[in-house]
Amino acid sequence: MKSNFKKGEISLPWPGLGTIVGQEELEAVTDVIKESIEKRKELKGGKLVERFEKEFAQYVDAKYAIAVSSCGVALLISGKILGLKEGNEVIVPPNTHVSTATSLMEIGAKPIFVDIKKNTFNIDPEKIEEKISSRTKAIYPVHYAGQPCDMNRILEIAKKHSLYVVEDAAHTPGAEYKGKRVGSIGDITCFSFQTQKNMTTLGEGGMITTNNKDFAEKAKILRSFGVKKYTNQENYWQPWHYDVVAISNNFRMTEVQGAFGLVQLKKLDRITERRREIAYYLTKNLKKIKGIIPPYENPDIKHVYHIYNVLFKEKEVGFSKDKFIEKLYHDYKIKPIIHYLPVYLFTVFQERGYKKGECPVAEEVFKESLGLPLYPGYSQREIDYLLFAVKEVLGNN
Predict the structure, then answer these.
(1) Which residue in 285, 287, 370, 300 sits closest to 329, CA to CA?
(2) 308: part of which helix (H) or strand (E)?
(3) pLDDT score of 346
Protein backbone atom coordinates (compact mmCIF):
# COMPACT_ATOMS: atom_id res chain seq x y z
CA MET A 1 0.00 0.00 0.00
CA LYS A 2 1.34 3.41 -0.97
CA SER A 3 2.32 5.48 2.08
CA ASN A 4 3.98 8.61 0.62
CA PHE A 5 0.79 10.66 0.43
CA LYS A 6 0.52 14.30 1.44
CA LYS A 7 -2.21 15.71 3.64
CA GLY A 8 -5.19 16.88 1.62
CA GLU A 9 -3.87 15.80 -1.78
CA ILE A 10 -7.07 13.80 -2.40
CA SER A 11 -10.59 14.84 -1.44
CA LEU A 12 -13.01 12.15 -0.26
CA PRO A 13 -16.33 13.81 0.63
CA TRP A 14 -19.23 11.66 1.78
CA PRO A 15 -20.51 10.20 -1.53
CA GLY A 16 -23.64 12.02 -2.66
CA LEU A 17 -24.16 9.21 -5.16
CA GLY A 18 -24.00 5.63 -3.91
CA THR A 19 -23.92 3.91 -7.26
CA ILE A 20 -22.24 4.27 -10.64
CA VAL A 21 -24.18 6.18 -13.30
CA GLY A 22 -23.07 6.48 -16.91
CA GLN A 23 -24.00 6.66 -20.58
CA GLU A 24 -26.51 3.78 -20.38
CA GLU A 25 -28.72 5.64 -17.91
CA LEU A 26 -28.45 8.84 -19.95
CA GLU A 27 -29.55 7.08 -23.12
CA ALA A 28 -32.42 5.28 -21.37
CA VAL A 29 -33.80 8.52 -19.94
CA THR A 30 -33.34 10.41 -23.20
CA ASP A 31 -35.27 7.73 -25.11
CA VAL A 32 -38.23 8.05 -22.75
CA ILE A 33 -38.33 11.84 -23.02
CA LYS A 34 -38.02 11.74 -26.83
CA GLU A 35 -40.89 9.27 -27.09
CA SER A 36 -43.02 11.41 -24.79
CA ILE A 37 -42.43 14.46 -26.99
CA GLU A 38 -42.91 12.68 -30.32
CA LYS A 39 -45.94 10.59 -29.35
CA ARG A 40 -47.38 12.90 -26.71
CA LYS A 41 -47.12 10.13 -24.16
CA GLU A 42 -47.44 10.63 -20.42
CA LEU A 43 -44.30 10.39 -18.31
CA LYS A 44 -46.08 8.93 -15.30
CA GLY A 45 -45.58 5.25 -14.58
CA GLY A 46 -46.21 3.03 -17.60
CA LYS A 47 -44.69 0.02 -19.34
CA LEU A 48 -41.12 0.73 -18.23
CA VAL A 49 -42.16 0.99 -14.58
CA GLU A 50 -44.10 -2.26 -14.97
CA ARG A 51 -41.05 -3.92 -16.52
CA PHE A 52 -38.85 -2.60 -13.71
CA GLU A 53 -41.28 -4.02 -11.17
CA LYS A 54 -41.27 -7.41 -12.89
CA GLU A 55 -37.49 -7.61 -13.16
CA PHE A 56 -36.95 -6.40 -9.59
CA ALA A 57 -39.41 -9.02 -8.29
CA GLN A 58 -37.52 -11.70 -10.20
CA TYR A 59 -34.22 -10.40 -8.87
CA VAL A 60 -35.29 -10.73 -5.21
CA ASP A 61 -37.36 -13.88 -5.88
CA ALA A 62 -40.66 -12.25 -4.85
CA LYS A 63 -44.01 -12.75 -6.59
CA TYR A 64 -44.88 -9.06 -6.67
CA ALA A 65 -43.08 -5.71 -6.75
CA ILE A 66 -44.79 -2.32 -6.62
CA ALA A 67 -42.75 0.78 -7.48
CA VAL A 68 -43.34 3.90 -5.36
CA SER A 69 -41.80 7.33 -4.85
CA SER A 70 -39.63 6.53 -1.81
CA CYS A 71 -38.89 3.94 0.87
CA GLY A 72 -40.62 6.15 3.44
CA VAL A 73 -43.76 5.94 1.32
CA ALA A 74 -43.28 2.18 0.98
CA LEU A 75 -43.24 1.91 4.78
CA LEU A 76 -46.32 4.14 5.10
CA ILE A 77 -48.23 2.10 2.54
CA SER A 78 -47.17 -1.13 4.26
CA GLY A 79 -48.66 0.04 7.54
CA LYS A 80 -51.92 0.87 5.78
CA ILE A 81 -51.95 -2.50 4.01
CA LEU A 82 -51.68 -4.24 7.39
CA GLY A 83 -54.49 -2.10 8.79
CA LEU A 84 -52.31 -0.56 11.50
CA LYS A 85 -54.06 2.17 13.47
CA GLU A 86 -54.14 4.07 16.73
CA GLY A 87 -53.63 1.75 19.67
CA ASN A 88 -51.46 -0.70 17.72
CA GLU A 89 -47.79 -1.20 18.57
CA VAL A 90 -44.94 -2.15 16.26
CA ILE A 91 -41.47 -3.41 17.21
CA VAL A 92 -38.67 -1.37 15.59
CA PRO A 93 -34.93 -0.83 16.21
CA PRO A 94 -33.85 2.67 17.27
CA ASN A 95 -30.82 3.09 14.98
CA THR A 96 -32.53 3.76 11.70
CA HIS A 97 -33.75 6.57 9.50
CA VAL A 98 -36.66 8.31 11.24
CA SER A 99 -39.12 7.22 8.52
CA THR A 100 -39.12 3.64 9.87
CA ALA A 101 -40.83 4.97 12.99
CA THR A 102 -42.61 8.10 11.73
CA SER A 103 -44.36 6.13 8.97
CA LEU A 104 -46.10 4.29 11.80
CA MET A 105 -46.85 7.42 13.78
CA GLU A 106 -48.49 8.99 10.71
CA ILE A 107 -51.23 6.37 10.89
CA GLY A 108 -51.47 6.40 14.69
CA ALA A 109 -49.45 3.27 15.49
CA LYS A 110 -46.82 3.41 18.22
CA PRO A 111 -43.20 2.39 17.62
CA ILE A 112 -41.81 0.22 20.43
CA PHE A 113 -38.03 0.35 20.37
CA VAL A 114 -36.00 -2.81 20.88
CA ASP A 115 -32.24 -2.65 21.41
CA ILE A 116 -29.62 -3.87 18.96
CA LYS A 117 -26.68 -6.29 18.88
CA LYS A 118 -23.40 -4.40 19.12
CA ASN A 119 -21.55 -6.49 16.54
CA THR A 120 -24.10 -6.25 13.71
CA PHE A 121 -25.98 -3.04 14.70
CA ASN A 122 -29.17 -4.99 13.88
CA ILE A 123 -32.16 -5.56 16.17
CA ASP A 124 -31.46 -8.16 18.87
CA PRO A 125 -34.06 -10.93 18.43
CA GLU A 126 -33.57 -12.09 22.02
CA LYS A 127 -34.88 -8.74 23.28
CA ILE A 128 -38.02 -8.65 21.14
CA GLU A 129 -40.42 -10.82 23.13
CA GLU A 130 -40.06 -8.79 26.32
CA LYS A 131 -41.48 -5.79 24.41
CA ILE A 132 -44.42 -7.65 22.84
CA SER A 133 -47.87 -6.91 24.30
CA SER A 134 -51.48 -7.58 23.38
CA ARG A 135 -51.31 -4.40 21.26
CA THR A 136 -48.33 -5.52 19.16
CA LYS A 137 -49.22 -6.13 15.51
CA ALA A 138 -45.91 -6.27 13.64
CA ILE A 139 -42.13 -6.33 13.71
CA TYR A 140 -40.19 -3.93 11.45
CA PRO A 141 -36.59 -5.20 11.30
CA VAL A 142 -34.07 -2.86 9.64
CA HIS A 143 -31.17 -4.43 7.75
CA TYR A 144 -28.61 -1.92 8.95
CA ALA A 145 -25.76 -0.74 6.66
CA GLY A 146 -26.34 -3.61 4.22
CA GLN A 147 -26.26 -6.59 6.60
CA PRO A 148 -29.48 -8.65 6.91
CA CYS A 149 -30.97 -9.28 10.34
CA ASP A 150 -31.38 -12.72 11.93
CA MET A 151 -34.60 -13.32 10.00
CA ASN A 152 -35.19 -16.95 10.99
CA ARG A 153 -35.37 -16.01 14.65
CA ILE A 154 -37.50 -12.94 13.93
CA LEU A 155 -39.94 -14.97 11.81
CA GLU A 156 -40.11 -17.61 14.55
CA ILE A 157 -41.08 -14.96 17.11
CA ALA A 158 -43.57 -13.37 14.70
CA LYS A 159 -45.26 -16.73 14.04
CA LYS A 160 -45.46 -17.51 17.76
CA HIS A 161 -47.23 -14.19 18.45
CA SER A 162 -49.19 -13.93 15.16
CA LEU A 163 -47.34 -10.79 14.03
CA TYR A 164 -46.59 -9.41 10.57
CA VAL A 165 -42.99 -8.80 9.51
CA VAL A 166 -42.16 -5.76 7.36
CA GLU A 167 -38.48 -5.51 6.41
CA ASP A 168 -36.88 -2.10 6.01
CA ALA A 169 -34.36 -2.99 3.31
CA ALA A 170 -33.39 0.57 2.36
CA HIS A 171 -29.72 -0.39 2.75
CA THR A 172 -29.83 -3.88 1.29
CA PRO A 173 -30.74 -4.37 -2.38
CA GLY A 174 -28.77 -7.45 -3.42
CA ALA A 175 -28.06 -8.64 0.13
CA GLU A 176 -28.65 -12.28 1.04
CA TYR A 177 -29.71 -14.15 4.16
CA LYS A 178 -28.75 -17.84 4.23
CA GLY A 179 -28.56 -17.88 0.42
CA LYS A 180 -31.91 -16.11 -0.06
CA ARG A 181 -32.09 -12.55 -1.36
CA VAL A 182 -33.66 -9.95 0.89
CA GLY A 183 -37.05 -9.09 -0.59
CA SER A 184 -39.08 -12.27 -0.22
CA ILE A 185 -38.47 -13.32 3.39
CA GLY A 186 -40.95 -11.29 5.45
CA ASP A 187 -44.58 -10.43 4.66
CA ILE A 188 -43.53 -7.15 2.99
CA THR A 189 -40.13 -5.64 2.16
CA CYS A 190 -39.44 -1.96 1.51
CA PHE A 191 -36.50 -0.75 -0.59
CA SER A 192 -35.01 2.69 -1.20
CA PHE A 193 -33.56 4.02 -4.45
CA GLN A 194 -32.62 7.42 -3.01
CA THR A 195 -29.49 8.91 -4.56
CA GLN A 196 -27.04 7.68 -1.88
CA LYS A 197 -28.26 4.09 -1.97
CA ASN A 198 -26.53 1.16 -3.70
CA MET A 199 -28.83 1.66 -6.69
CA THR A 200 -30.99 4.65 -7.56
CA THR A 201 -33.94 5.67 -9.72
CA LEU A 202 -32.79 9.18 -10.58
CA GLY A 203 -32.45 10.52 -7.06
CA GLU A 204 -35.57 9.23 -5.32
CA GLY A 205 -37.75 6.14 -5.47
CA GLY A 206 -38.72 2.97 -3.65
CA MET A 207 -40.12 -0.52 -4.06
CA ILE A 208 -42.49 -2.75 -2.13
CA THR A 209 -42.07 -6.51 -2.58
CA THR A 210 -44.31 -9.27 -1.28
CA ASN A 211 -45.53 -12.78 -1.99
CA ASN A 212 -49.07 -11.87 -0.90
CA LYS A 213 -51.37 -11.06 -3.84
CA ASP A 214 -53.86 -9.16 -1.68
CA PHE A 215 -51.09 -6.98 -0.24
CA ALA A 216 -49.79 -6.26 -3.75
CA GLU A 217 -53.22 -5.19 -5.00
CA LYS A 218 -53.71 -2.91 -2.00
CA ALA A 219 -50.28 -1.36 -2.55
CA LYS A 220 -51.16 -0.49 -6.15
CA ILE A 221 -54.34 1.23 -4.99
CA LEU A 222 -52.65 3.11 -2.15
CA ARG A 223 -49.83 4.46 -4.31
CA SER A 224 -52.33 6.19 -6.60
CA PHE A 225 -54.88 8.24 -4.62
CA GLY A 226 -56.71 5.14 -3.39
CA VAL A 227 -58.10 4.60 -6.90
CA LYS A 228 -59.29 1.19 -8.03
CA LYS A 229 -59.58 1.00 -11.81
CA TYR A 230 -61.91 -1.23 -13.78
CA THR A 231 -60.84 -3.10 -16.88
CA ASN A 232 -63.69 -2.13 -19.21
CA GLN A 233 -62.17 0.78 -21.12
CA GLU A 234 -64.88 0.90 -23.81
CA ASN A 235 -66.82 3.30 -21.62
CA TYR A 236 -63.76 5.13 -20.31
CA TRP A 237 -65.57 8.49 -20.33
CA GLN A 238 -68.17 7.34 -17.81
CA PRO A 239 -67.36 8.29 -14.20
CA TRP A 240 -67.79 4.75 -12.91
CA HIS A 241 -64.84 3.30 -14.83
CA TYR A 242 -62.90 3.70 -11.57
CA ASP A 243 -63.66 4.04 -7.87
CA VAL A 244 -61.86 5.57 -4.87
CA VAL A 245 -61.71 2.91 -2.17
CA ALA A 246 -59.07 4.29 0.24
CA ILE A 247 -57.73 7.58 1.57
CA SER A 248 -54.29 8.04 0.02
CA ASN A 249 -52.22 10.24 -2.26
CA ASN A 250 -49.97 10.15 -5.32
CA PHE A 251 -46.92 7.99 -4.54
CA ARG A 252 -46.20 6.75 -8.07
CA MET A 253 -42.84 6.30 -9.78
CA THR A 254 -42.33 8.03 -13.13
CA GLU A 255 -41.56 6.34 -16.44
CA VAL A 256 -38.18 8.08 -16.55
CA GLN A 257 -37.32 6.59 -13.18
CA GLY A 258 -38.43 3.16 -14.36
CA ALA A 259 -36.05 3.38 -17.32
CA PHE A 260 -33.24 4.50 -15.02
CA GLY A 261 -33.97 1.70 -12.55
CA LEU A 262 -33.85 -0.99 -15.22
CA VAL A 263 -30.29 0.02 -16.13
CA GLN A 264 -29.26 0.26 -12.49
CA LEU A 265 -30.67 -3.17 -11.67
CA LYS A 266 -28.49 -4.76 -14.35
CA LYS A 267 -25.44 -3.13 -12.72
CA LEU A 268 -26.35 -3.96 -9.13
CA ASP A 269 -24.44 -7.23 -8.74
CA ARG A 270 -21.27 -5.72 -10.20
CA ILE A 271 -21.59 -2.65 -7.97
CA THR A 272 -22.23 -4.88 -4.94
CA GLU A 273 -19.11 -6.94 -5.58
CA ARG A 274 -17.02 -3.78 -5.89
CA ARG A 275 -18.42 -2.47 -2.59
CA ARG A 276 -17.59 -5.77 -0.91
CA GLU A 277 -14.10 -5.78 -2.40
CA ILE A 278 -13.38 -2.29 -1.06
CA ALA A 279 -14.90 -3.15 2.34
CA TYR A 280 -12.79 -6.28 2.74
CA TYR A 281 -9.64 -4.39 1.80
CA LEU A 282 -10.43 -1.69 4.35
CA THR A 283 -11.19 -4.28 7.03
CA LYS A 284 -7.98 -6.19 6.36
CA ASN A 285 -5.95 -3.04 6.96
CA LEU A 286 -8.02 -1.34 9.68
CA LYS A 287 -8.16 -4.37 11.97
CA LYS A 288 -4.42 -3.90 12.54
CA ILE A 289 -4.98 -0.41 13.94
CA LYS A 290 -5.44 0.06 17.67
CA GLY A 291 -8.71 1.75 18.59
CA ILE A 292 -10.64 0.99 15.39
CA ILE A 293 -13.00 -1.98 15.11
CA PRO A 294 -14.09 -2.69 11.51
CA PRO A 295 -17.62 -3.90 10.73
CA TYR A 296 -18.52 -7.49 11.57
CA GLU A 297 -20.13 -9.68 8.91
CA ASN A 298 -22.20 -12.71 9.87
CA PRO A 299 -20.94 -15.82 8.03
CA ASP A 300 -24.41 -16.84 6.79
CA ILE A 301 -25.31 -13.54 5.10
CA LYS A 302 -24.14 -11.43 2.18
CA HIS A 303 -23.38 -7.91 3.35
CA VAL A 304 -23.66 -5.22 0.64
CA TYR A 305 -21.90 -2.46 2.61
CA HIS A 306 -24.17 0.48 1.97
CA ILE A 307 -22.42 2.02 4.97
CA TYR A 308 -18.94 1.07 6.14
CA ASN A 309 -19.39 1.57 9.88
CA VAL A 310 -16.48 1.28 12.33
CA LEU A 311 -16.38 1.58 16.11
CA PHE A 312 -13.97 4.17 17.52
CA LYS A 313 -12.55 3.36 20.96
CA GLU A 314 -11.67 6.71 22.53
CA LYS A 315 -9.91 5.23 25.58
CA GLU A 316 -7.58 3.14 23.43
CA VAL A 317 -6.85 6.00 21.04
CA GLY A 318 -6.43 8.71 23.67
CA PHE A 319 -8.66 11.36 22.12
CA SER A 320 -12.30 11.82 21.13
CA LYS A 321 -14.19 10.59 18.09
CA ASP A 322 -15.10 14.21 17.33
CA LYS A 323 -11.42 15.13 17.24
CA PHE A 324 -10.73 12.19 14.90
CA ILE A 325 -13.49 13.27 12.52
CA GLU A 326 -12.38 16.92 12.71
CA LYS A 327 -8.80 16.06 11.74
CA LEU A 328 -9.86 13.80 8.86
CA TYR A 329 -12.20 16.50 7.57
CA HIS A 330 -10.03 19.60 7.93
CA ASP A 331 -6.54 18.17 7.45
CA TYR A 332 -7.16 15.34 4.99
CA LYS A 333 -10.36 16.41 3.17
CA ILE A 334 -12.11 13.18 4.17
CA LYS A 335 -15.68 13.39 5.43
CA PRO A 336 -16.93 10.58 7.69
CA ILE A 337 -20.60 10.52 8.71
CA ILE A 338 -22.22 9.40 11.97
CA HIS A 339 -25.15 6.95 11.68
CA TYR A 340 -27.65 6.94 13.49
CA LEU A 341 -28.82 8.87 16.52
CA PRO A 342 -31.37 6.56 18.22
CA VAL A 343 -34.54 8.06 16.79
CA TYR A 344 -36.37 8.27 20.14
CA LEU A 345 -33.88 10.97 21.14
CA PHE A 346 -35.23 13.38 18.52
CA THR A 347 -37.58 16.11 19.74
CA VAL A 348 -40.71 14.72 18.08
CA PHE A 349 -40.29 11.47 20.05
CA GLN A 350 -39.23 13.11 23.31
CA GLU A 351 -42.40 15.20 23.19
CA ARG A 352 -44.37 11.95 23.00
CA GLY A 353 -42.87 10.42 26.12
CA TYR A 354 -39.89 8.43 24.86
CA LYS A 355 -36.91 8.59 27.23
CA LYS A 356 -33.15 8.42 27.00
CA GLY A 357 -31.85 5.02 28.10
CA GLU A 358 -34.54 2.93 26.40
CA CYS A 359 -31.95 1.12 24.26
CA PRO A 360 -28.55 1.41 25.98
CA VAL A 361 -26.62 -0.64 23.40
CA ALA A 362 -27.86 1.56 20.55
CA GLU A 363 -26.90 4.67 22.51
CA GLU A 364 -23.42 3.26 23.22
CA VAL A 365 -22.96 2.31 19.55
CA PHE A 366 -23.95 5.81 18.48
CA LYS A 367 -21.24 7.28 20.70
CA GLU A 368 -18.59 4.97 19.20
CA SER A 369 -19.61 4.49 15.57
CA LEU A 370 -18.81 6.43 12.44
CA GLY A 371 -19.09 5.70 8.74
CA LEU A 372 -16.04 6.01 6.55
CA PRO A 373 -16.78 7.06 2.96
CA LEU A 374 -17.14 4.10 0.60
CA TYR A 375 -18.00 4.53 -3.07
CA PRO A 376 -17.88 1.73 -5.68
CA GLY A 377 -16.12 4.05 -8.12
CA TYR A 378 -13.13 4.69 -5.85
CA SER A 379 -9.71 4.01 -7.35
CA GLN A 380 -7.14 1.97 -5.42
CA ARG A 381 -5.22 5.19 -4.84
CA GLU A 382 -8.23 6.82 -3.20
CA ILE A 383 -8.80 3.81 -0.94
CA ASP A 384 -5.14 3.76 0.08
CA TYR A 385 -5.29 7.48 0.80
CA LEU A 386 -8.22 6.89 3.15
CA LEU A 387 -6.21 4.26 5.04
CA PHE A 388 -3.15 6.49 5.08
CA ALA A 389 -5.15 9.34 6.64
CA VAL A 390 -6.75 7.14 9.31
CA LYS A 391 -3.38 5.67 10.27
CA GLU A 392 -1.64 9.04 10.36
CA VAL A 393 -4.33 10.67 12.51
CA LEU A 394 -4.11 7.75 14.94
CA GLY A 395 -0.32 7.76 14.97
CA ASN A 396 -0.05 4.27 13.48
CA ASN A 397 1.98 5.14 10.38
Answers:
(1) 370
(2) strand 308-312
(3) 98
Question: What contacts 57, CB < 8 A, 6 or more positions away?
Answer: 63, 64, 65, 209
320-341 pLDDT, tens digit each: 999 999 999 999 999 999 989 9
Buried b / exposed e along 88-123 (16+ C-beta atoms within 10 A): bbbbbbbbbbebbbbbbbeeebbbbbbbbbbebbbb
The CATH superfamily assigned to 268-393 is: Aspartate Aminotransferase, domain 1 (3.90.1150.10)
CATH 3.40.640.10, the chain: domain bounds: 23-265
Q: How far apart are CA 118 and CA 130, in angstroms?
A: 19
Provide DSSP, 265-286: HHHHHHHHHHHHHHHHHHHHHH
**Please, where in the chain does CATH 3.90.1150.10 lie?**
268-393
What stretches in the chain show pLDDT beneath 50?
397
Task: Give 216-248 pLDDT, tens digit per residue.
Answer: 999 999 999 999 887 666 666 666 678 899 999
Arch. (CATH architecture) of 23-265: 3-Layer(aba) Sandwich (3.40)
Which pLDDT value is given to residue 46? 87
Helix (H, G, I), strand (E, B) or coil at 311: strand
The count of other CB atoms within 10 Å of the CB of residue 341 is: 14
**According to DSSP H, which parts of the chain are helical?**
23-39, 47-60, 71-81, 99-105, 151-160, 213-222, 255-286, 314-317, 321-332, 347-350, 360-368, 380-393
CA–CA separation, 110 and 354 (whole Å): 11
Pairing mode of beta strands 164-168, 188-192: parallel
Predicted pLDDT of residue 42? 75
Instruction: Specify the pLDDT at position 119.
Output: 96
Angle (nearest 5°) at CA 330 between 326 and 334: 85
Closest residue by Cα to residue 273 from 303, 232, 294, 315: 303
* Cα gap 112→91, rounded to integer Å: 5
Predicted confidence at residue 4, as pLDDT, reads: 83
Q: How many CB atoms lie within 10 A of CB 153?
A: 14
